[in-house]
Amino acid sequence: MSEDSGKKLTMVTCSAPVNIAVIKYWGKRDEELILPINSSLSVTLHQDQLKTTTTVACSRSFQEDRIWLNGKEEDITQPRLQSCLREIRRLARKRRSDGEADVDTAGLSHKVHICSVNNFPTAAGLASSAAGYACLVYTLSRVMGVEGELSVVSRQGSGSACRSMYGGFVQWIMGQQGDGKDSLAQQVEPETHWPELRVLVLVVSAERKPVGSTSGMQTSVETSSLLKHRADSVVPARMKEMIEAVHKRDFTAFAELTMKDSNQFHATCLDTYPPIFYLNDVSRRVINLVHRYNRHYRETKVAYTFDAGPNAVIYTLQQNVEEFVQVVKHLFPPETNGGQFLKGLPVAPTTLSEELKQAIGMEPMVKGISYIISTKVHRHTHIHTYTHAYIHTYIHTYIHTYIHTYIHTYIHTYTHTHTHTHTHTHRQHPPGPLPVSCASLRVGVVEGFGERA
């Protein structure tokens, strides 16, 4: 092999969406394989507002696998990371042994460098681990030429990550087999199925939650009799009802099932010993607000759900967004952030009637909500393409001290050999982390790999 070929760098950057469950996953029957005690169903959100971006580089010159998380290098030997790496490499070797012509055989023995970054608060119950592992597995699969069912692999990193492999409305089928091969994600409806559905994320706190999802659900499985009843007797019927509601675009049924399941999930957390408290006073005020708002109109126009954290996710239809956002602004007025209180999809201002204000009848709480993310249902993981000029701009802007070594060693090889199947347009943003320079970039990235509902 020539010196140039030895320095060849294969690099792929992908992004993966956040998913928010409406029928929750909480509890595993197998900790190692991450097999759930019940099926679950989620909605995949738009990547313009909520996503993880991961870059994986593979090179003969790399001496070991490395990963950068939260602005610092982390332990690559973490068991769930190793499970994903090991399984992707196994599948790549299998493709090679099966005679697949497009597998890069040399790359199978090379080490990888991994960096991730997300565009939303980490570790506060906003699905960072789901998007993180889905993105990791998908990007690794592109680097190593692995195709086919990947949700089973991403599940081994974080259970709910399997649902982020698909867009639209997605169910995670719990499966029955001991090896977990039938525990996988399946799309119920695509993102185009219900275009009127909108999502508002009310960010109550961006702080790290006091009890992680992984440890929390393990304690619940060990101590909560309500959790066992929920998995055995409640969720199977709810899954059928929710799938039917999605198929029919029946918002009333969808909304009521969503709220009931969120309430029961948090009831199992209270039934855990010692109890787990993910909701706070602001969370409970949001719950109260939603019910008063619906009661005023004598129909279910808005629904809430909470994962393992205090942040509320609101589902509603397009025609209700403007008024409900104004209600939130009225009851949780921002103190200093003004226009930054609402992020994501634009929402036109409106005026609330005095009748509605009186019906809600709640005193405003300044700074109760940090900001709102306005978004909608969207698609699955996808690959990013960057031009030669774009990469050079990124380098000159962000890693000036690394320019000469990086360009002469990697960049020309990368831009001539690196191909993608999907083009994504970026506006005034760097193209995500470049693994060879992670140490100098100190990129802020996704939550250390855990789980959520």
UniProtKB/TrEMBL annotation:
Question: One Pfam family, short name please?
Answer: MDD_C
This protein's pathway:
Steroid biosynthesis; cholesterol biosynthesis
Give the reaction(s) catalysed: (R)-5-diphosphomevalonate + ATP = isopentenyl diphosphate + ADP + phosphate + CO2
Keywords from the named record: ATP-binding, Lipid biosynthesis, Lipid metabolism, Lyase, Nucleotide-binding, Steroid biosynthesis, Steroid metabolism, Sterol biosynthesis, Sterol metabolism
Cellular component GO terms, alphabetical: cytosol
Q: Which residues form the Diphosphomevalonate decarboxylase-like N-terminal domain?
A: 16-185
Give the Mvd1 C-terminal domain ranges.
199-378
> From which domain of life does this come?
Eukaryota
- Mind telling me which InterPro entries this protein's record contains? GHMP_kinase_C_sf, Mev_decarb, Mev_diP_decarb, MVD-like_N, Mvd1_C, Ribosomal_Su5_D2-typ_SF, Ribsml_uS5_D2-typ_fold_subgr
Q: Fetch the PANTHER family from UniProt.
A: DIPHOSPHOMEVALONATE DECARBOXYLASE
The UniProt function text for this chain reads: Catalyzes the ATP dependent decarboxylation of (R)-5-diphosphomevalonate to form isopentenyl diphosphate (IPP). Functions in the mevalonate (MVA) pathway leading to isopentenyl diphosphate (IPP), a key precursor for the biosynthesis of isoprenoids and sterol synthesis.
Task: Supply the NCBIfam families for this chain.
Answer: mevDPdecarb
The name of this protein is Diphosphomevalonate decarboxylase
Task: List the top taxonomic levels of the source.
Answer: Eukaryota, Metazoa, Chordata, Craniata, Vertebrata
